[in-house]
């Protein structure tokens, strides 16, 4: 934390502290940036050694279909009979150059799988975050304002329910109500077959269907894409909304009783504005920090949501490869997600440090 | 978290009765109003869950892998009726029985996971905090890396390692429990380490050292005993997370085979296609079971959290800074923010 220099400190010490404070932000940035590398390194190594403990991936995926001789031949061809340490070094070098290997079941390079399906997961994650913000932040403010009264209790129970409901069960229930019983929304998928064909005809599709649909300019395609996104976004978004609600509530309760809020109230500032402006704004910094932690949870939730709704993204692919016991593809996808998490955490810490000087030290 | 100012000898003599010192009961007496209501509801749900889990063989109408009764096969996807109160699944099992037996599986997984992670987490946290230096730094960097990792993905990787996917009852339970343990250890490590670092600099540790107590004695008798106050809270919160992770693993097909045990997540996976054709009873009931149990345990955990935190317990002293509020909300998050550099 920022230290206030004692008035009787020797001049040299004061200068030293001042210098450290001046470089504080950049130093923090640098240290935090350098910390990404050990994080990625540890995660990638952990995944590698854990996965290799099971034996080689070829036996795992093809063991029951090939004869022992064929297996041995394929294991030799892929280099899995070499010392583990050599394989590890090679793997690290590959990861460093962005090569995560090729899947065994269909021979596609993992990097290509990631590029093709990553956009779908990104799209889902963004929708879910939007839902989480729209639901979580206002309700959190309401709960804080009506603290310890019935409204607050109901909202807190709602928040706990959001957390307690597994995202795939929420998805199933939403599907049952809105798609099967009310027939108001599509059951699964990212778009209807017709729209998908249409989107594929674009010159260079971004893979984010909403952007592609807007580029086709057809309103029916846009509606189609959006209606398909509602249920998955709700299922995944509510999970995060519960966390946001609790967080906003705790922090706004903290800021609402500060002196400057009392001062603003006595100046005649309206209650709504009081909560919106004076209490929420300072509470936003910790929320941003927690969003960083939420990215990891969101990715885990995305795997389950995508499986529930057949949303063809990374999580859906991961579940498919898991079912096929194709562990090279699994390892690649997991390693890439680890890199993404490490990078987002860095960005989030960076934003928090820019917003709040107290975070850097 | 006692605020007693008595001398140690005197405190030892007039110790409150043992049941008043139980972690949860003490807080129950401390609580008031709404907070007490939430705690009581949570305790009731949790006890029902534990009782059902223990007495599953007596409560459940059929076995978890029973396919036929006295009048032949149950039949698949039968709607709820007098024979099968909650209907039957696509595989022809009785839904009610599988929901009840599922409680047993869940409880076993929680117990194994918590015991393992508490022991390993405390040991590592104690060593890391007490020894400090490079060992501490390396442990913390590794723990942080694991903590940042999406826990479900890590659990999947661990499940592949342990069981290769499919497994028997104990194999499946151990696989799920160990997968969850891997995710939890960093949390216990963090919590215990933070406490150890705090306690280590207290005067009584210094005095013990001056008297000539051995490192081991100081570590276990003086530091460890005073570093476990936040554990009940972390344990409750983790139990609910354990159920969710178990269900998630089961949903992705890393559960326990239906012939070996009942598992809610696995049943939900099998009911995915039922939902599209309007068959609701195969998914709603196991899902509700998960929601209820997690709700119950989380209510207990939340109440303990609020009661342990004077800022949330007493209305007059709210959090001073946003950073402190985060700390109140999520102790581990605070450590992350505070100890990065």
Could you please describe the fold and organization of this structure?
The complex is a heterodimer of chains A (361) and B (341). With 361 residues, chain A is mainly α. Chain A has a domain at 115-323: MetI-like fold. Chain A has helices spanning 11-22, 24-34, 36-53, 57-62, 68-78, 84-96, 110-145, 150-164, 167-181, 193-200, 209-216, 219-256, 259-266, 271-309, 314-323, 327-355. Chain B is mainly alpha-helical and 341 residues long. Helix content of chain B is 70%, strand content 1%. In chain B, a hairpin with a 2-residue loop joins strand 1 and strand 2. In chain B, helix 3 (33-54) packs across helix 14 (281-308), helix 5 crosses helix 11 and helix 12 packs antiparallel against helix 14. The radius of gyration of chain B is 23 Å and the shape is elongated. The two termini of chain B are 30 Å apart. The model of chain B is unreliable at 1-12, 314-320 and 327-341 (pLDDT under 50). At the A-B interface, helix 2, helix 3, helix 8, helix 9 and helix 12 of A face helix 3, helix 6, helix 7, helix 11 and helix 13 of B.
Write down how many β-strands of chain A occur, each being a DSSP E stretch of 2 or more residues: 0
The residue-averaged pLDDT of chain B reads 75
Secondary-structure element sequence of chain A?
HHHHHHHHHHHHHHHH
Q: What does the radius of gyration of chain B come to? A: 23 Å
Helix content of chain B: over 70%
Strand content of chain B: under 5%
Q: Biggest sheet of chain B, in brief?
A: 2 strands, antiparallel
Say which CATH homologous superfamily of the domain at 115-323 in chain A is assigned.
MetI-like
Radius of gyration of chain A: 25 Å
CATH class of the domain at 115-323 in chain A: Mainly Alpha
């Amino acid at each position: 934390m920022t230290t206030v220099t004692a008035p009787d400190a020797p001049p040299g010490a004061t200068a030293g502290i001042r210098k450290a404070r001046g470089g504080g932000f950049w130093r923090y940035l640098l240290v935090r940036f350098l910390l990404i590398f050990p994080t990625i390194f540890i995660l990638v190594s952990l995944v590698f050694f854990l996965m290799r403990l099971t034996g080689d991936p070829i036996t795992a995926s093809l063991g029951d279909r090939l004869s022992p001789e064929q297996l041995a031949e394929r294991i030799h061809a892929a280099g899995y009979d070499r010392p583990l340490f050599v394989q590890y070094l090679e793997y690290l070098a590959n990861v460093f150059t962005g090569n995560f290997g090729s899947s065994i079941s269909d021979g596609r390079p993992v990097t290509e799988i990631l590029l093709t399906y990553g956009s779908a997961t990104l799209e889902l994650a963004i929708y879910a975050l939007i839902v989480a913000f729209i639901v979580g932040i206002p309700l959190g403010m309401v709960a804080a304002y009506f603290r310890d009264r019935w409204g607050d209790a109901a909202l807190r129970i709602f928040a706990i329910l959001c957390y307690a409901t597994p995202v795939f069960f929420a998805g199933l229930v939403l599907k049952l109500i809105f798609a099967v019983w009310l027939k108001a929304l599509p059951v699964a998928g990212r778009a209807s077959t017709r729209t998908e064909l249409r989107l594929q005809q674009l010159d260079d599709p971004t893979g984010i269907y909403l952007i592609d649909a807007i580029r086709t300019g057809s309103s029916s395609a846009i509606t189609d894409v959006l209606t398909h996104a509602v249920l998955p976004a709700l299922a995944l978004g509510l999970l995060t909304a519960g966390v946001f609600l609790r967080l906003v509530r705790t922090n706004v309760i903290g800021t609402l009783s500060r002196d400057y809020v009392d001062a603003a109230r006595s100046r005649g500032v309206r209650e709504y504005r009081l909560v919106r402006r004076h209490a929420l704004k300072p509470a936003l910094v910790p929320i941003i920090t927690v969003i960083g932690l939420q990215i990891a949870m969101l990715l885990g939730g995305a795997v389950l949501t995508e499986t529930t709704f057949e949303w063809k993204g990374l999580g859906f692919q991961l579940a498919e490869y898991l079912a096929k016991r194709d562990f090279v593809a699994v390892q690649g996808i997991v390693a890439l997600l680890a890199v993404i998490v490490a990078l987002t955490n860095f960005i989030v810490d960076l934003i928090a440090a820019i917003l709040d000087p107290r975070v850097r030290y | 978290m006692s605020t007693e100012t008595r001398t140690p000898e005197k405190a030892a003599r007039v110790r409150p009765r043992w049941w008043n010192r139980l972690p949860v009961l003490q807080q129950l007496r401390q609580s008031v109003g709404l907070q007490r209501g939430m705690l009581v509801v949570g305790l009731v749900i949790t006890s029902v869950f534990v009782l059902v889990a223990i007495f599953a063989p007596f409560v459940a109408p059929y076995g978890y892998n029973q396919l036929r009764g006295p009048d032949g096969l149950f039949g698949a996807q039968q709607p709820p009726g007098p024979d099968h109160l909650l209907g039957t699944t696509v595989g022809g099992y009785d839904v009610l029985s599988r929901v009840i037996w599922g409680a047993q599986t869940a409880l076993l997984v929680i117990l194994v996971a918590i015991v393992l992670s508490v022991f390993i987490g405390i040991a590592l946290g104690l060593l890391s905090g007490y020894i400090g230096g490079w060992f501490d730094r390396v442990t913390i960097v590794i723990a942080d890396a694991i903590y940042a990792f999406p826990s479900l993905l890590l659990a999947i990787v661990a499940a592949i390692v342990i069981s290769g996917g499919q497994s028997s009852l104990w194999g499946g339970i151990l696989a799920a429990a160990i997968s969850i343990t891997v995710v939890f250890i960093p949390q216990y490590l963090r919590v215990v380490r933070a406490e150890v670092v705090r306690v280590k600099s207290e005067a009584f540790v210094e005095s013990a050292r001056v008297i000539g107590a051995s490192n081991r004695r100081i570590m276990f008798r003086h530091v460890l005993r005073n570093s476990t106050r936040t554990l009940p809270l972390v344990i409750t919160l983790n139990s609910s997370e354990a159920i969710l992770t178990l269900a998630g693993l089961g949903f992705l097909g890393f559960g326990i085979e239906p012939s070996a045990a009942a598992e809610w997540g696995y049943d939900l996976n099998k009911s995915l296609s039922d939902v599209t054709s309007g068959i609701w009873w195969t998914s709603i009931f196991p899902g509700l079971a998960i929601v209820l149990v997690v709700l119950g345990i989380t209510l207990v955990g939340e109440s303990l959290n609020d009661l342990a935190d004077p800022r949330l317990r007493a209305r007059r002293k709210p959090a001073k800074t946003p950073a402190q509020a985060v700390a109140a909300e999520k102790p581990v998050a605070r450590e992350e923010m505070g100890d990065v550099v």
